[in-house]
Amino acid sequence: MTPIIQLKDVSKYYTQLGNQQIVLDNINLEVFTGEFMAIIGESGNGKSTLLNLLTGIDSPTRGEIVVGGALLHQMKPEQLSLWRCSNIGIVFQFFQLLPALSLLQNVILPMDFANKLTPRDRKEKAMQLLSRFKLAELAHRLPSQVSGGQQQRTAIARALANNPPIIFADEPTGNLDEATTKSVFDLFHQLNSDGKTIVMVTHNQALAQATSRQIEIRNGRIFSDSRSLN
Amino acid sequence: MNVLWSKIWADLWLNKSRTWLAIINMAVGIFSVGTLVGMMDLQLSQMDAAHTRSNPSHINFLLRSSAQTEILQNIHSLPNVLGLDAITQFTVRFRLSSDSDWETGTLFIRPNYLTQNYDITSLNSQNWPKQGQIAMENLSAQVMPLAMETPIEFQTPSGNAVLKYSGVVRHPFVKPPKFGGQLHFFADTSALALFGLPTTSFRQLLVQIQPPFQSEKVQNVALTIRSELAKHGVYVNATFLQDPHKHWGRPFLSGIHYVLTWMAISALILASALTYKTVSAHIIEQTSQIGVMKAIGAKTRTLVYLYLTQIFIMALIAILIALPLGVLISQESSCQLLKLFNIACEPWQISWKSVQLMIVSGLVTPIIATIIPILQGARMPVHHALATYGLMGKFGLSRFDVWIQKIGTHGLSILQSAALGNLFRNKLRFILTQSVLISACVIFLLLMSLINSLNLTLDNEMERHRYAVRLGFSIDQPATKIEKLLSDFDQNAHIEIWRRLPVELIKNNSPIIPKGSLGLQLLALPADSQLYSPRIEKGRNMQISDAGKRVLLISNDTAQKNAIEVGDTINVQIGTHIDLWEVVGTYNWLAGNNFTIESVYVPLETIQAQTHQSTIATYAFLDTPILNLIEEKAYLKKLKAFFNQERISLDVYTTQGKREQRQFAQNQFQSVIGTFSGLASLIAAVGGISLSGTVALNVLQRKREIGVLRAIGASEQNILYLFWSEGFFHAISAWLWSVPLAYFLSKSLSIQLGQIIFGVKLDFCFDWLSIIYCLVGLLVIVSIAAYFPARNASKLTVKEALSS
Questions:
Q1: Do A94 and B388 touch (CB under 8 A)?
Q2: Can you give B316-358 as a three-state secondary structure string?
Q3: Does some domain include residue A65?
Q4: pLDDT score recorded for residue B720
Q5: Looking at the DSSP assignment, which residues form a beta bridge with residue B583?
Q6: Domain assignment of residue A56, yes or no
Q7: Does residue A113 form part of some domain?
Q8: Higher per-residue pLDDT: B461 or B323
Q9: Residue of B nearest to A122 (CA)
Q10: CA nearest A59 in B: which residue?
Q11: What pLDDT, in 10s, does the model give residues A32-86?
Q12: Does A61 reach chain B within 8 Å, measured CB to CB?
């Protein structure tokens, strides 16, 4: 089976005032379609850098990154933007919805960037996504007019807008209360059941345990890689 | 360096873009104020200095005919007369070679150039004219540059005579050729005989009164001297009174300076608004740091000191940038205007007043402008300062925000909709940016309407001049002779003869004070004149039934100044006759500035009956089909040559074509229009900087948002478009506000500005086309101003943006 995400000897160094700081060191990783993988580890160990490399937000100092067949390490920033638009969805910790746009418009935005469907179809699809996450009635509200959980559900809907096979989430429940965290996490499970591959950075051990695979990053290396039995 | 200074330095250095933005905003204000104030100060001080150097006469009499020098003794002995200078000036015809055409000019002859008393003519280059030589006035030499020793041929009563060009002199009071002035030549007294004039005659009299100078005393002495001259049969064409300490051009500049002062104040306010905007943004960005500092024990006073020191450092840098520029530009621009007054600009003149103002305003204004956001930031509670808001900000909390968002859903793309909403995320910043752009646009629209109204006023005035050419005779001529000559010259021309007479209007036993500082003249024209009708303000124009009646029209300004109403009767002194005349109407006087002789219109038929001189002509007006300025010039040239052949001397100042007259009037307005256009550009530049600053601040404050957009697939082009669109919406919003605002303000302001600047009641006409120009201008400014910060935003990598 071909992995959907493949990292070969990936390292990331930063050089500051002549000193080289190793953030990720010789990472080799394969993620397969349909996996729900949690990246865990303490702050400053390289979790976010790894997620940035996987999403093409950052580039490796060395090594190869292949996501969905795209050779990210060889792509230019403008190509990466286009690629992200159609091939992956990203969910952020602080939701990061555009405050001047309604929930509906926020969901339509990636479809506008991809420029694939007609405007009418984009709106229809965005409404479908919002309905799926029980947000249809709030579609025309601004982000500031809805709760944190509703905002994060909208952010997930936005990530799904162009129907990408992979969803990356950076601490998606880090800013939510317990009850909302559970409902949002359930959504990720639902998506995973629908066949989406999910890669999520989290501090929450309990949530991590509820995923199908957990990798722990320590000192820039993969310290452990385990799969849950359930 | 202590820690606080390290923090100050780090804030300034690590946020270089914003630091420079604040410095540029401050520098724009300092530069604008310094340039405008410096320009005014240098203009006035150099004008007054040049005026004083010429030892100005207090009274300048332009005589209708030559007077004999023997009467000078009588005038000198009149009470309060300190001294006199007699000059001869008359019209001459000259040419540069036998192939070229004859042209007209004015020749001045002073008894001795080395012992001049008043209105001193100074030597600019080469030599004073001696026998067989001629010098040229500085402004004339600029229009007709010649090499020294160039022979210039003049027509004299005894045939043509050649005089050699000896040098360039400066006369303190000549009209520039492009304002309708003639070429001016200067010769010594040997030229009097050459031009057939007695050596004991003069045509202009310069007088100074006994100190102290008092305008009332000057007027009384002028009146006494006019009476003395009249006793000897010498009449005065114009009397010019001048203050020895203030240049005669001051009234011309007072209107411009009035506008410049307001511009300087506006520029300072706008620049302060921009500084406020930048510093507020800085404080907002520093919120979490303020929280941390307060949490670890920083006092409000310490924080105020910290941020005010940053402002102080930025203000100092802004002064260092703006001060030399302001000094340089004010020097250069004042020189341009001084040239109009024939004043050579002294190099490296510095207006210390403007330097002081730049330093004081540069240090004080930014502190006043920023003290509120700094205090607000420094007083912020710790828990509030440490709170994290992600991208949210405060947008969406008001009904207005919701309304704006709803507008965005109609017919706008998502990015456009986002841009529209983003405009209102920082409402104060939006208001400040809008006020700068609206000011720029409104000023532009007002200026264009002012120019349009000026043109309309000139057009309407020309419409009332239904003649093509006006001929003024140096000496009054028999009307029948002139009519016959003109009929011979152009059989198709409609001809009208006018007469001019010196006049005094008396009300309640004292002479009335006219608006025109050069006094009054009586213009007698046919009661049913076909070729001219003044613009009547009150009452009526003259009509055929007025022929033979003692009725007159006076200027509305003079009527108001002297409380004269239509229907009133006033005493009119013509020569030695004093009769009661009825004011049947007042007219609006398009004088342009104060240095004009004001007309009193009366029926020619009445004057003919009263003076028993039915056939005298001072002016002849011709109406003949002439299509353009070139045709007019050719026609006038032929006409002048024709009268020269007939040995009838034409007055150079009053012989003019209608189109030429309009051109000269327009040229006079041109310098003012040029100044205003420069000011409009300055305001537009401030608008551009403001907008650029707003977009740059938006980019700085929304880096994370840019990162998110890039992360979800936005291309560089999308980001560029988003931020450019914000600038675009700013332009559209400013334009939509400016048009109605300018429309409602422009009528009253144009009329007021017309009065202040030109002393003319303008016919108002809103310039509709300028609305389009304004929109195009705003879009151009926006495109340029928003492009660079928008491009910077688009070039941010996702990582840079998300990690900010």
A1: yes
A2: HHHHHHHHHHHHHHHHHHHHHHHHHCCCCCCCCCCCHHHHHHH
A3: no
A4: 84
A5: B552
A6: no
A7: yes
A8: B323
A9: B414
A10: B799
A11: 999 999 999 888 888 888 988 998 888 899 999 999 999 998 988 778 888 888 8
A12: no
